[in-house]
Amino acid sequence: MTRQIPLITPLWQRIEASPKPIVEESVQLRVLVQLLVVIGIIATDIAIEEPRHLWAIPVSLVGATWSGWRLHHRNIPVKFCIALGMLVALAAFFGRLLGELNDTRVVLAELLIHLQVLHSFDLPRRKDLGYSMVIGLILLGVAATLSQTLAFAPVVLAFLAIALPTLIFDYRSRLGLSRFNKRSQPSSQRHRLPHLNYQFLILSFLGTVLLGLAIFAVLPRFPSYQLRTFPVSSPLEMPEGEFDGSQVFNPGYVSEGEGEGEGEGGQNPRSGPGTLNTAFYYGFDTQINQNLRGQLIPQVVMRVRSQAPGFWRVVAFDEYTGQGWNISRNERTVTLKRPRWSYQFMLLPRPTQAETREVVQSYTILSQLPNLLPALAWPQEVYFPTKELAIDIEGTLRSPLVLREGLTYTVISRVSFRDRNLLNQASTQYPDNITDYYLQVPDDIKDQVRQKTEEILANSNSISKTPDSLDSPYEKALFLAQYLKQNPTYKLQDDPPFLQQGEDLVEAFLFGYQNSPEGTTITGGYPDHFATVLTIMLRSIGIPARVVGGFQPGEFNPFTGLYVVRNTDAHMMTEVYFPSYGWFAFNPIPGMDLIPPSIERNQTFSALRAFWDWIAGWLPSPVTNILQMIFGRLFTWIFTSIRWFLQQFSQGGLGLFRGIAITIGLSFLGWLSWTQLMAWRERSRLAKLPPMERLYQQMLKIFKEQGYPKSPSQTPWEYAQYLQTQEQMTQAEMIEEISQAYVRWRYGTEAVNLQRLQHQLQQLKKSQIKRFRTRLLKRR
Asked: Which residues, including other chains, have CB under 8 Å from residue 173's CB and lie 6 or more apart?
């Protein structure tokens, strides 16, 4: 007699005595489910741009194969090992979770992958396969939130293409139509498994893709919605020693006596004539030299996910040196420290009377950048993976480390609305901390630049053809920026002459370079020179201004929702100070928007607008202009109507009543329109049929509406016999006469008396209407 082990033996006997689960026999369903899981794993690795989980694919396939082989066994030891493995995976998950203080999406995805690998060794039931399908779908959803490129799009299409037949096989299994189950059924109850309708699958696939793109294009984006868990990279190790916030590390610059910088195409000397580094923008430093010549080679430097487009501001300068700019109070930086349990750095709010909106931005660095953080003005919270950050007097954020490839951080900014009327009314009484630093102009050019600026403003009426006077700093700044953009005298130069020692950039730009070829006078300059000139012109007439460097929004990808930013998007602009309202930017560079993109009053459908801008960029200009002229007013009316409708629900009880009433009215009109459309389609279909066929189809429609539809397997004679058992004898005679006439016409090509048959059909309609009314009265 076998030895009995207390507790374990009775438990084992109970397990053995329990009924076996009903297993899923469909091999097709099992294969398709595993393909869905494989695609989910691949999508995760594509999204994080690292082949970290490819090992799970062969292991999961091995487990699914073994599970299919051991389908009719209990596999108790294996299930016990799976339970232990899941406990280990859960412990590893919590261990990693403590290291990820903010973004836990990758950690959750890895936990699901580990669980799926273990789960693949135990897939006997259809319900177990359903768990795997859900895991694959969740992995795809997680990857969608992490993905930043269109490389994710083919994975989504592949998942959809496999998911459609998977759902069909799953549904057939639920109905008991699996061809592997028919052996155990009586011959009278066996079902023949029909082949997949590939035409239906293809049409369903295309319809789903088109419908998804349409919904994506018109889906409202509400800027007020914010997720409070933000993507941030893993913690970065700080360099040894105390963090000096005054230092800026731009790999494109080489300090005298120091090692070689990175990049190709020459170095950026900090003073004197020189060649631009072709990889790194020269303007991100504590001082910039605008006597450099050359061009950047385009390359993608970062991707930005933001609730609103904007100028990704990096650095600001206050001191003009004659051939560049300098941060005069560079040593006045404040070091910020974050708590150990969070990546959040809190910054002091900027006082302003302007209306503001919170805008969340997440940045992913793709190519090395200086240790200056791009961000919308003004940042209130920064989620960054170092222990310390610094901020200078100009609002520039500084990291202890150079921003390297793969780094991700998030900024929450409080961006001001640009209200032209309010800014026109702003005071001109500037505080001392503004006049002391933002009105500085070199004495050698001060009078000459002021005279030129006043001359331009004095001629503003004749230039702009408007009688309005420029009596506010805002209008003067706007006009001068527009003047520099449009005046043919000041052109964008591909290769302006070098400045000689002691020569002033603004003077050379406005009045001619000393190194101009004999007999000619070259004016204008590089794009950044326009910002320098506008800033000094404004200062010369007593308007505080400074230059800021940063990136244009970049190219918006409507499918990923990200802005792709290149090094060639970097440039400088002019910021003007308005008391009580703060700094606002003006862009005098030809070919760019005069007012940089920023938040708008309503951005609910900003994705649709950005999608149209992306499409318009591929079309010829004449076609784009025609389409904009045709659809511009239509879209404006639609957006205005939708915005007005949504606003009704936030205007108290009366507005709520109006909104509900409008909703009911629109729903009724929609139902009525749909009904009429279906009736029109039916009339159009019948009109194309031969008279006898049309008459017979009308009879079928009458009885279908009464609850007696004709089955495709029934012949006209069988259907007539079926109706005779349901209807009165007088109606049965009409049904039989029409059915026999149809059969003779359809199969015997005999002539029929259409006039009599149409009369019979009208009588049939009247009798059905009368019968319907009688039924309705009886129910009452």
From this structure: 24, 26, 29, 126
Mean pLDDT for 662-675 is: 86
Higher pLDDT, 286 or 147: 286
Q: What is the pLDDT of residues 328-369, one digit of tens each?
A: 999 899 999 988 888 889 998 888 888 888 889 999 999 999
Q: At 149, which amino acid appears?
A: T
Q: 127, 282 in Cβ contact below 8 A?
A: no
Omega cis (within 30) before 618: no
Whether 668 has a pLDDT exceeding 50, the answer reads: yes
Q: What is the H or E stretch that residue 165 is in?
A: helix 152-174
Q: Record the tokens describing residue 731, joined without a space.
A: 């109606």
Q: Which amino acid is at 285?
A: D
Domains: count for the chain? 3
Distance of CA 526 to the CA centre of its chain: 34
Across 703-716, b (16+ Cβ under 10 Å) vs e yields beeeeeebeeeeeb
Residues 592 and 723 in one domain: no
Pair 579, 461 in one domain: yes
Q: Which pairs count as long-range contacts for 737-740, CB under 8 Å and 24+ apart, including other chains?
A: 738/695, 738/696, 738/699, 738/764, 739/696
Query: Domain containing 128: what range?
Result: 21-182+196-218
In a shared domain, residues 593 and 697: no
Write the CB contacts of 372 (distance below 8 Å, at least 6 apart in sequence).
Answer: 248, 284, 314, 315, 396, 397, 398, 399, 403
pTM for the whole thing? Answer: 0.67
Residue at 511 is within a domain? yes
Burial class of 138 by CB neighbour count within 10 A (0 to 12, 13 to 18, 19+): middle
Distance, CA of 657 to chain centre: 34
Q: Provide mean pLDDT across the span 672-679.
A: 85
Which residues face 369 on adjacent strands? 403
Nearest 10 degrees: Cα torsion 429, 432, 436, 437: -80
Q: Are residues 171 and 28 in the same domain?
A: yes
Contact 696, 743 (CB under 8 A): no
Burial (CB < 10 A; 0-12, 13-18, 19+), residue 754, is middle
Do residues 467 and 578 both lie within one domain?
yes
Beta bridge partners of 562: 557
Give domain status of residue 57, yes or no.
yes
β strands within 333-402, DSSP E:
333-337, 344-346, 356-365, 379-383, 388-392, 397-398
Give a yes or no: residue 465 inside a domain.
yes
- How far apart are the C-alpha atoms of 249 and 258, rounded to whole Å? 12
Domain assignment present for 346: no
What would the pLDDT profile of 711-763 be if each residue is shown by its tens digit? Answer: 777 788 777 777 777 655 456 777 777 888 888 787 776 777 778 888 877 87
